[in-house]
């Protein structure tokens, strides 16, 4: 199969997306109420009423510019009034700080002095209140705490660098949360696609096409697909699968950063926007590919990407969770989907190739099983049986790639093939785990059944498994060989243990092969031990 760049470009069509009017993406400015306290008149007499310190009629309470605490009789005070009603205020916590230093007109008489600050004594006696420590605002700002050390990126966590902390929440999510107070699954990316670099997208398509060609050639050679499937299903731990997918996902984010470099420079596109775009176009990660069915899903996608299943191929590469009214944006979204899938799958295959090396032993491809569309899956099934890979057999049967009732051009069933290749574990799986069950009594074009083949090969475990099958006919005959039964074949080859097993499971010793009885057959081949066994039965 050959696919060119044009195949991927033809795939990128807007007809595979749903179009609807995009929501207004204008951000709403958040309005924060600011506390404004009006100070009509503040004088020395009003500021000093809540102090626990007894009043001293000879001195005034002023604030030291060095310590920030109130002192008595400071020579630096130039007047009686410390604050006034015209001062502008700012709130910090529950306190109100006065920023202006202008002195308004006041009915209180101010007498300048060089030695002591004078004050106006209130004529009304005020009752002293019992309150906590009175804290007056300082005239100068005190030194603040030292800044915290810069935030470093911690591997395996969601902690960002200091310059990326502002990007923790994507712009679109900020708009949506301001609009309705809750986050939604994002499907429209028009606001960020305006910053996408078209030349980088074109390069992605070229790279994806080259990767598809390599993956297709790899899977078509020998039993590479079956060998990789066995590695992926059984030999490669789930934890390492998680690591390799996480690494490829990070690489994909880096590719998107390059494509949206202009938007990232002016903070119009942040990391949260990129992760949301990845979730929309590469929705298989992490839920599907890391779930219980993840290994089977990965192999299904690999089969589609490397086969002639054009309908499934186009459907797979166009399965995005996005909506747009812009034709160009739709093509870019499909291009991102194609590049994401192909690059991740190609990277995993390339990792396996580097792991096993170029000199990996390969089995010969088995051709000519059938000419139907299932020829490739059936060939892989036969390769898996020959290699004894039950995990691959289970994957092919469970996902419907092959049928349990299949028989090849020689009328050989999967059970017959397991017997031929001496795979008792595979035979046990096929006899006990497969539904609908396989016809164990079906004869091949030679007239032999699976039990005939097992008795003829002398493999006792195979004969025992077949004899224990409920639907087995131990007296099945080969019409092309004078009605020979498995017992006749085992006597001819001198397999004593198999003869005993067949007799134990009800083999009829009175049946003849043509005109020859079982005892005569044992005598003719000079199998005295078997002859004695037959005489005792």
Quick structural summary:
ANK repeats lie at residues 446-466, 482-514. Mean pLDDT is 77; it is low at 14-119, 151-169 and 368-373. The strands form two sheets. Strands 1-2 form a two-stranded antiparallel sheet. A two-stranded antiparallel ribbon has the order 3-4.
Give the overall average pLDDT. Answer: 77
User: Which sequence of strands runs across the widest sheet?
Assistant: 1-2
Topology as a string of helices (H) and strands (E): HHEEEEHHHHHHHHHHHHHHHHHHHH
Q: Work out the oligomeric state of the chains in this entry.
A: single chain
Shape: elongated
Largest sheet: 2 strands, antiparallel
Low confidence ranges: 14-119, 151-169, 368-373
The Cα radius of gyration reads 43 Å
SS-based structural class? mainly alpha
Question: Beta fraction of the residues?
Answer: under 5%
Helix content: 40-55%
Write down how many β-strands occur, each being a DSSP E stretch of 2 or more residues. 4
Distance between the termini: 61 Å
Continuous helix count: 22
Number of domains: 3
Secondary-structure map with pairings?
Blueprint lengths: L4 H7 L32 H4 L13 E3 L6 E3 L16 E4 L2 E4 L72 H10 L9 H4 L4 H23 L3 H12 L2 H22 L1 H5 L5 H11 L12 H12 L4 H8 L9 H30 L18 H13 L2 H9 L15 H7 L3 H9 L17 H8 L2 H9 L17 H7 L3 H9 L13 H7 L3 H9 L1
């Amino acid at each position: 199969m050959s696919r060119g760049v044009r195949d991927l470009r033809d795939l990128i069509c807007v007809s595979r997306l749903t179009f609807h009017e995009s929501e207004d993406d204008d951000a709403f400015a958040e309005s924060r109420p600011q506390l404004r306290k009006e100070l009509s008149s503040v004088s020395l007499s009003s500021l000093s009423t809540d102090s626990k310190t007894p009043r001293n009629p000879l001195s005034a309470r002023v604030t030291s510019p060095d310590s920030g605490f109130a002192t008595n009789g400071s020579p630096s005070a130039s007047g009686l009034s410390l604050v006034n009603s015209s001062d502008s205020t700012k709130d910090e916590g529950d306190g109100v700080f006065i920023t202006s230093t202008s002195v308004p007109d006041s009915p209180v008489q101010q007498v300048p002095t060089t030695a002591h600050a004078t004050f106006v004594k209130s004529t009304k006696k005020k009752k002293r209140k019992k309150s906590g420590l009175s804290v007056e605002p300082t005239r100068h700002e005190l030194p603040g705490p030292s800044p915290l050390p810069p935030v470093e990126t911690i591997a395996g966590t969601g902690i960002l660098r200091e310059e990326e902390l502002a990007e923790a929440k994507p712009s679109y999510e900020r708009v949506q949360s301001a609009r309705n107070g809750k986050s939604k699954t994002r499907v429209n990316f028009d606001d960020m696609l305006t910053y996408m670099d078209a030349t980088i997208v074109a390069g992605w398509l070229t790279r994806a096409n080259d990767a598809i060609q390599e993956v297709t050639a790899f899977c078509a050679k020998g039993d590479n697909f079956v060998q990789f499937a066995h590695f992926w299903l059984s030999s490669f731990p789930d934890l390492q699968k998680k690591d390799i997918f996480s690494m490829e996902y990070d690489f994909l984010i880096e590719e998107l950063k390059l494509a949206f470099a202009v938007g990232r420079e002016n903070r119009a596109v942040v990391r949260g926007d990129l992760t949301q775009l990845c979730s929309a176009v590469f929705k298989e990660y992490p839920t599907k590919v890391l779930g219980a069915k993840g290994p089977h899903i990965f192999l299904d996608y690999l089969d589609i990407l490397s086969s002639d299943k054009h309908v499934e191929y186009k459907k797979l590469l166009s399965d995005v969770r996005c909506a747009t009214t812009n034709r160009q944006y739709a093509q870019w979204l499909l291009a991102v989907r194609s590049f994401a899938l192909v690059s991740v799958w190609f990277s995993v295959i390339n990792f396996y190739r580097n792991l096993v090396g170029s000199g990996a032993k390969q089995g010969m491809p088995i051709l000519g099983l059938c000419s139907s569309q299932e020829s490739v899956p059936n060939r892989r099934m036969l390769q898996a049986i020959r290699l004894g890979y039950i995990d691959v057999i289970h994957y092919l049967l469970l996902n419907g790639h092959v049928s349990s009732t299949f028989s090849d051009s020689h009328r050989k069933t999967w059970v017959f093939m397991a017997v031929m290749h001496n795979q008792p574990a595979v035979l046990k799986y096929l006899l006990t785990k497969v539904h609908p069950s396989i016809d164990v009594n079906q004869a091949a074009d030679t007239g032999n059944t699976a039990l005939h083949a097992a008795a003829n090969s002398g493999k006792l475990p195979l004969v025992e498994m077949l004899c224990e099958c409920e639907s087995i006919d131990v007296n099945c005959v080969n019409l092309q060989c004078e009605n020979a039964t498995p017992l006749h074949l085992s006597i001819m080859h001198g397999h004593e243990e198999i003869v005993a097993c067949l007799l134990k499971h009800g083999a009829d010793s009175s049946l003849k092969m043509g005109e020859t009885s079982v005892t005569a057959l044992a005598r003719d081949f000079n199998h005295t031990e078997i002859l004695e066994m037959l005489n005792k039965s």
